[in-house]
Specification:
about 40% helix, globular, 8 helices, single chain
Length: about 270
């Protein structure tokens, strides 16, 4: 722990969907790099259990260097509700005074054949993945534009799915393309406040969203065969890129999209 460079020391970050998968890995990575972290999770029993586990992991991480309550807080809520983002941002600002980084990460993906996609599934996916991203980013950037000094970093969790189609993802890929477009327009609109907006585009990452899909050994081997680095990703693969985009190392980077896919997108073989 003591050898980790503190690239985010003194910065405050808030993240949605931060108790499982990629979000969880980023939370622990930001804590390791010295940030204060406010974490949103859906307020249900499963999410609460994950939040408790994350709390223990964070406690184990920070035990030698500080009190957990000084650097970490959890705020439940559904990102599809406009007030959730406001509550998350308010909690971070109340505890640490400002907001430096906001990561819109919450998302759902239920694989479904096109002809089996119901209006309810479409609306649920759109509300969580895209409408939720808008509401929470709007809340974060409202704060960033008004604080002293103004500015901050917004990171939208898009996907390689924003750039390609998926036979069982016709309700999902449009939302991730929407997140990418939202980030690009936000970068144009918010630069005058010193707010940078960038998107991360994960490839095939082993998370709870696709664990059933990757359990098919033939499909997993096919995917690994298409990835130049020879393996599917793990949540920790997103930590470095997320730290980079949240730190001063990326001070002149905005409106960018960073693929984190092991080379999958560029491999046409």
């Amino acid at each position: 722990m003591h050898t980790t460079p503190q690239l985010l020391a003194g910065k405050t970050m808030a993240i949605t969907g931060g108790v499982t998968g990629i979000g969880r890995a980023i939370v622990l990575g930001y804590l390791a790099h010295g940030a204060n972290v406010a974490v949103n999770h859906l307020d249900d029993s499963a999410s609460s259990e994950h939040a408790g586990t994350l709390y223990q992991e964070a406690l184990a991480l920070l035990g030698p260097i500080g009190h957990l309550s000084d650097r970490f807080c959890v705020v439940p809520g559904d990102v599809g509700e406009p007030e959730t983002g406001k509550k998350l941002v308010a909690a971070a600002v109340k505890q640490w005074g400002r907001l430096d980084v906001f990561i819109s990460n919450a998302g759902i993906c239920e694989f479904k054949e096109f002809l089996e996609i119901t209006p309810d599934l479409w609306n649920k996916t759109l509300t969580t993945n895209l409408t939720g991203a808008f509401h929470t980013i709007h809340a974060a950037t409202t704060q960033m534009s008004r604080q002293t000094p103004p500015g901050g970093s917004i990171i939208g969790m898009s996907s390689i799915s924003a750039l390609v189609g998926g036979a069982q993802q016709a309700h999902y890929t449009p939302t991730k393309a929407g997140v990418l477009s939202l980030i690009q327009s936000s970068a144009c609109a918010l630069g005058k406040y010193g707010i940078r907006c960038n998107a991360l585009l994960p490839g095939t990452i082993k998370t709870q969203l696709n664990e059933k899909d990757l359990a098919d050994e033939a499909k997993r081997k096919y995917m690994e065969g298409r990835i130049p680095l020879g393996r599917t990703g793990v949540p920790g693969d997103l930590v470095g890129p997320a730290v980079f985009l949240g730190s001063d190392l990326s001070a002149y980077v905005t409106g960018a999209q960073l693929l984190v896919d092991g080379g999958l997108f560029v491999n046409l073989q």
